Fold:
Amino acid sequence: MGGVRVRDFTWRPLGRSTPTLTSLDLDVADGERVLLVGASGSGKSTLLHGLAGALGTTFTGELSGTADVEGRFGLLLQNPGDGVVAERIGRDVAFGPENLGLDRAQLWSRVDEALDAVRMPYGRDHLTAALSGGELQRLALAGVLAMRPDVLLLDEPTSMLDDENAAAVRDAVLDAARGRTLLVVEHRLEHWLPHVQRVVVMDAGRVVADGSVADFLAATPPRGLWMPGLPDPTPLEVPEEWVRPTSDVVAVRASDVGLELVTRSMRGTQRTRALDGLTAELRAGAVTGLRGPSGAGKSTALAVMGGLLRPTSGVLEPALHRRSSRELARLVGWVPQNPEHGFLAQTVTDEVGRTGAALGRSVDVGALLELFGLARYGPASPYRLSGGEQRRLALVAALAHRPGLVLLDEPTVGQDRDTWAAVVGWMRAAAGAGAAVGVATHDASVPLDVELQLRAGAVV
Structure:
């Protein structure tokens, strides 16, 4: 038993003038596999939250209609870090099965099976705080799989993974979904289409198309979707005056840099060799991409070269970690992998203008919000946006003051074709205007001037 029934479902978050979901109807039969697609901000994640009962409880706003799930469900959040409940990965995955009342032997058998299914490279005692973004995504999925729910509600389960691990995780999902109901949200559709029975298209909080995969592929491509066979979008042309550096351009060189991350907890200390002999350069006027599997050290390398972490060994030129916070804010624009880590203001408008105001630099907030499709959210809280919208907001807020060093961590995750073009257009324009741009990404579509492959904290 695992069907889904949604009737006249409407949700307007607190602080938003228009609903995110409007009079939505949807039925998913027991055992059916459905791919839920739509442009960024169309309401896909919100629908999953509604099915999980989070709207009106975890999230505040006006709710009407019904959203019912038969049987037990498992929800994978778009931001996997939001689901971490324990200090160590074994205990985290065990949380769901514990609440099902399983005996100890059965519980730990499920934990080990789920960790193996998502290709987690660590044992049960590894600290959750020491995981990369992609590893957190696999951990969150392991927690869902270990419960063996009747209905799987998965929000972009492979968006932060390299191709190899994404394929393995997808296989794990499909194995778990046999005989169960699957509702999966993804922007990159190609690898899911052969494995689902239906495609439901959302736009502006409504279902606008619902049918078989064949019908979906035969129809006119919906706005913004990454349809199979289409060429990559052309990056948007961004006016140079919006990206031309107003600070010194900082080209960074790392020579044999090492970094040992120390994670402390009540039960002890874990040391992780995050970088091991990293030699890399971020050149002025170029987009340098850091690629590699989850946990390879891409995010850490960006943070070290941007002065946010102090290296354990090796040489950084310049040594930005020795600069003051204000000086770093002037020189460096950093877009974190988790966009919420950078939010400081109560409204979207204030978030974009905050750094520029602190540094005495003019920012055309309205024009930048329009460029990134966020103009209608100006008075809203940054925390009320979708995952893809939050990522774009983090980018424009970090870069609106036009720094000379631009560091982007997975900036295209959660973007449709149109918003992808805006994000990539910005980074290309910044490099064209002379900035040094570094980007950590699994997205093979991002056009790079220099590509560095990382593995085990070093360039290979």
Summary: The longest strand covers residues 268-282. Residues 21 and 354 are 30 Å apart (CA to CA). The mean pLDDT is 91.
